[in-house]
Each structure stands twice: as C-alpha cells, then as structure tokens.
From TrEMBL:
Its EC number is 5.1.1.3. Belongs to the aspartate/glutamate racemases family. The active site is at C75 (proton donor/acceptor), C191 (proton donor/acceptor). PANTHER family: GLUTAMATE RACEMASE. The gene is murI. Provides the (R)-glutamate required for cell wall biosynthesis. This is Glutamate racemase. It catalyses: L-glutamate = D-glutamate. Substrate binds at D11, S12, Y43, G44, N76, T77, T192, H193. It comes from the Bacteria. One of its GO terms (biological process) is regulation of cell shape. It holds the Pfam family Asp_Glu_race. One of its GO terms (molecular function) is glutamate racemase activity. Pathway: Cell wall biogenesis; peptidoglycan biosynthesis.
Length: 265
C-alpha cells in the first residue's frame, strides 16, 4: 500500500502499547489510532459472551470513526474470541494476537515451555489447540495469572508495585526437572500487558529463560499486508489515543515513547 495508511491498534487497556511500539518501528510513516477499552478492563473478568458482545460493535464504531486501512487486535483474550466475528462483520483486514506457542516450542532446548496469560486466555480451546498442533513434543504448562495485567498497568502509571507481587504471579511458570537441562527454559508472554514488565520479569526469574513476546511477529504481519512503506514521518499528523471511558488519560507523558516519535493527541 502506498501513501500513509491508517492503522488502528486495539486493546483492553495499555498492554497493546507494546505491540504498537513494534509496528511503529516497522511503519514509521503510518498514521495511528490507539484505542483502549479501559471502561471494560480487565477482559479476563468478563464472560466470553460479554466480550464478544462488547468488542464486535465497538470495533465497528471505531472503524466508522477513524476509517483504518488495517486493525490490529493487540489483546490475546479478545483475539481468541472475536477475530472470526470481526472478519465476518467488517471488510477491513485484521491482525490478531495469539500465544506464540509454535516459535517457543521450536526454540526450547529443554522441551519445557510455559504459557503465561490471563485466566481467560489459558482456558480457551483456541490456546489448547495451539498446543496440540505446535507443541512439537514439548511439555507445555499453562499458567493463568489473575493480577499481572493490572500490576503492569499500575506500574506504567507510576504506582509502586512490589517485586513480591510480580514474583508470585510468575512463579508457577518455572518447573524444575532433574537438573538444569530439564527445567523450563522458555516462557510465552500470552498477554500484551506483560512485556510492560519485562525488565522486572527477567530480574525476578529464579533462573534465566527466554521470554517470547509476540509483538515483533505482529509487526511483520502488518508489513506483509501493507508493505514496507517509508521511513519518513516528519509531516505526519502523529497519533490519536482513544479511551472508551471518555476520560483524558493521566499517563500521556508515560505513553508517548511507545509512539516512536509520533505525538499522540
């Protein structure tokens, strides 16, 4: 696609910023709308029916308002539930976010992989099907975190979050076998909020592991659909942030780095 495409990035909250950052690096010339459904956050506390009933019409409203050339659903929980509904309802191309189980299992040396996601994501049949199809003989443990997404949003906002709180959420991911060659060596970050805490995850891990962030793969998929584009964005109108609560977000200065030089309005 030539010109400057409009790209809509949607998440339940601020976790999708980790995806946005990678897409901006790949398409610095695009115009961006980041939409956070903060009025309904966190999605993990809602039923599947409620999420589908919420997200499908909401995306339609955002498409009408912003006319995107492509929509990225930067949320594992929403993607595993609504992508098929969205593609049936709207003609805009969609890119979803699903647990990166295939590359994690391909990369694991000890054949022990954990998938760290929200309780909603890890219990989905979609996630279990990915394991059946792509585990490649690995022992894959699903770990549902009740609080890590909220802790990530709090930390981004400058609220102190104790190391112990984060360590407790990730502890079940680390499985020990008979010696270091038979313990977890790869953890899939199956919620886009979690890379917001990546530095602390690395520091608090009981031993080094590979943390698999899906954002680079999502950015590559966007480029495959829209083309490589241009590196120039000096005269671009920047980016727009939309919060479904209707409130101006108090974290504007903290969010700006995720827009790669674009000035979010």
């Amino acid at each position: 696609m030539s010109g400057h495409p409009n790209i809509l990035v949607f998440d339940s909250g601020l976790g999708g910023l980790t995806v946005l950052r990678e897409i901006v690096r790949a398409r610095a010339d695009a115009r961006y709308v980041y939409a956070a459904d903060d009025a309904f956050f966190p999605y993990g506390q809602h039923s599947e029916e409620a999420i589908i009933g919420r997200v499908v019409p909401l995306i339609g409203e955002l498409i009408d308002a912003h006319a995107p050339d492509l929509v990225v659903i930067a949320c594992n929980t929403a993607s595993t539930l609504v992508l098929a509904h969205l593609r049936a309802a709207y003609r805009v191309p969609f890119v979803g976010t699903v647990p990166a189980i295939k590359p994690a299992c391909a990369a694991s040396r000890t054949r022990r992989v954990s998938v760290l996601g929200t309780s909603g994501t890890v219990k989905r049949e979609y996630t279990r099907a990915l394991i059946r199809d792509f585990a490649q003989g690995c022992d894959v443990k699903l770990v549902g975190s009740a609080h890590l997404a909220s802790l990530a949003e709090a930390a981004l906002g400058g609220t102190p979050v104790a190391d112990a709180a984060i360590a407790a959420e990730i502890a079940p991911c680390f499985v020990t076998g008979d010696g270091p060659d038979n313990r977890t060596d790869t953890i899939v970050l199956a919620c886009t909020h979690y890379p917001l805490l990546l530095d602390r995850l690395v520091r608090l891990a009981p031993w080094p592991v590979d943390w698999i962030d899906p954002a680079p793969a999502i950015a590559r998929r966007v480029v495959s659909l829209l083309g490589a584009g241009s590196d120039r964005h000096q005269n671009e109108p920047g980016a727009t942030i939309v919060f479904t609560s209707g409130q101006s977000h108090r974290l504007a200065s903290a969010l700006t780095p995720y827009f790669g030089g674009h000035i979010p309005a």
